[in-house]
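Tokens for formate dehydrogenase (coenzyme F420). Go.
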Amino acid sequence: MEAKQDSSTPISRGILKSNQTQVLTRLGNMFAPDVGLPKIADVGEFNYCSSCGTCEAICPVNAPVVRRGPVDVSKEKNNYRKMELKTEVLFQGVNPLKTEVNPCVQCYACERVCPILDGFPVDEFNNIRHMKAGKSKTLHGQDGAVVSQILKSLLEQGEIDCAVGIVRNDKWSTKIFTFTKPEDVVKASGTKYTYQPAVATMRDIHRAYVDSAESPLISPDGVMREESRTYIEPIKNILKKYKKVALVGVPCQVHGASLFRENFNRIELIIGLICMESFSEEIMFSEVIPKIMGVDIRDVVKMNFHKGKFIVETTKETKEVPIKDVAPMARHGCHFCQDYTSYYADISVGSVGSDDGWSTIFVRTEKGEQYLNKVKDIEYSDKPIFLDIVKKLAAMKHKNNKWDWRGFMKEIWSRDIPPRPWGRERLERIPPPEVEKVEKTEKGDKAEKAAKPAQPKE
């Protein structure tokens, strides 16, 4: 039996009734209380935000921004850099002639591309066209280096103009990077377990088509900048007009990128990574590595989740702990994710389900199949993918992160009378809970058997 909750407060693993007045009071009602804030305000307020950066990418005024600065994990271990929405209340008393003023203008573009507001797949495996294990013939990576090989080969052939991904330094600190040369791809090899808002980079790429005076997120060397955005230099002088962009990301980033592509069509290929969860750099560097693993981050050469263990290899030793020891420290938004295999990607890649040194490849769309067929120097295995283990881990993630996301979507999109057109579309697409359907079927079968009269024995 569920405990009674105040309707104004979120419940664990989901919120059935959010309080728009509470959110408006904190962020400011922008003198339009009957219209209300975009629904990403609720997503951020209740820590459902995945920090994918899609709302930042699509916003015409740069009102939602994924926080770049450090977060305090001393009290809340799973604290993370989530989206912050700038509203008029933030700029009260500010002189617009001296300071940039860019509050939300209620265009609602952001809520159309938020993956949380779009829901989750019920069956993560129903869109797989075919699957196979592969590895690069020329590159060395953590598990087959297939993603690196795809990007390198497509850049060499001119099939894509650039690729957005994550790179790390020798201290495991990560940055968003745009790759424009095949030789740059090796910089991104290896798995990273700390998070960056990769889709936010699309803001600069698709705005490079217009005469904007806004300074870029991306510096000329391809690395995402840390300093605050200003309106000083035209980004058209910094970025080329990329027409064919590939993006590599984890499930939430992939979902956001897919929604972004539906609206702007600047992303040509989406490559998804199989992902259980990710961590903030603060918790990884202050808790997980030094305290739980007991090693120096400067000595770490590889991290990996494998067979229920979190494994860290250093120049001196290899240590492992049960995943349950580190999972609670994952970013708060990760605890609501119901996508393990990057369902919305064109191609999904991971290590689970194939032999060591090989990558599991799920081709999910016609576009993904077309591009993979163009990639050179990938060796494919004759062994079938061990799909049962992938499904087992997907089910485990769903169970651990279970919350009433359907209830949240129904409540939040039904708030408007009548619902906005894109809200109505999402309401119509909300699937019934699969578990409840099974339970009801089982109960129905039992009731039917009980209602039938006993048959006389012959």
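The first helix runs from residue 20 to 27.
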